[in-house]
Amino acid sequence: MKLLIDTNIILDALMMREPWAVSAQAVLLAVAEERVEGFITASTFTDLYYLLRKHLRDKEKTRQALLGLLTSVTVLDVNGTDCERAFELSMNDYEDALLAWCGKRHKADSIVTRNPKHFEGSPVKAISPCELLKIFQGNPD
């Protein structure tokens, strides 16, 4: 299963944001254990750097956290066509639309996000970490 991981999932896991941290960490663990393929976009990576650096207030800790992430996820490129095509999607948030379009281009099975409703109109199904964990447990309801 190919999963495109939204920024909020990674931040929830790395910043221990409650009440989402445990389920977000379970998603990243599934990726690290190679039970699923995990992807993020290059634009997500730059957002992560900015937000983690602000949170941690430490360049080296930020660097180490993101280098650790890179051992298990694949970073997808974002090109000019992606930027244009994202405007064509009937989604309210451009950043989410760009993620959705990149997911489509790279044939992701799902986008894992804390906010699946933000991805209405997405060409790739969005699921929450809890929904993903139910799938792992053989209970997709």
Description:
The chain has helices at 7-14, 21-32, 42-56, 59-70, 80-88, 94-105, 129-136; strands at residues 2-5, 37-41, 73-76, 110-112, 126-127. The model has no long low-confidence stretch (mean pLDDT 95). The chain has seven helices and five strands, in the order E-H-H-E-H-H-E-H-H-E-E-H. The protein has a five-stranded parallel sheet with strand order 3-2-1-4-5, sandwiched between helices. By secondary structure, it is an alpha/beta fold. The longest helix is centred in the middle third of the chain and has 15 residues, at 42-56. The protein has one domain (2-136): Rossmann fold, CATH 3.40.50.
Keywords:
141 residues, alpha/beta, Rossmann fold, 5-stranded parallel sheet, 5 strands, 13% strand, globular
Low-confidence spans: pLDDT under 50, at least 5 residues? none
Helices and strands: which structural class? alpha/beta
Q: How many strands, which pairing sense, and closed or not: the largest β-sheet?
A: 5 strands, parallel
Name of the CATH homologous superfamily: 5'-nuclease
Which strand order does the major sheet show?
3-2-1-4-5
* SS summary, helix count: 7
The name of the CATH topology is Rossmann fold
Mean pLDDT: 95
CATH class: Alpha Beta
Please trace the helix and strand order, writing H or E for each element.
Answer: EHHEHHEHHEEH
CATH architecture: 3-Layer(aba) Sandwich
Alpha-carbon distance between the termini? Answer: 18 Å
Net shape: globular
Kindly estimate the percentage of residues that lie in beta strands according to DSSP: 5-15%
Radius of gyration: 14 Å
Total separate domains: 1
Oligomer: single chain
- How many beta strands in the DSSP annotation? 5
- State the helicity in percent bands: 40-55%
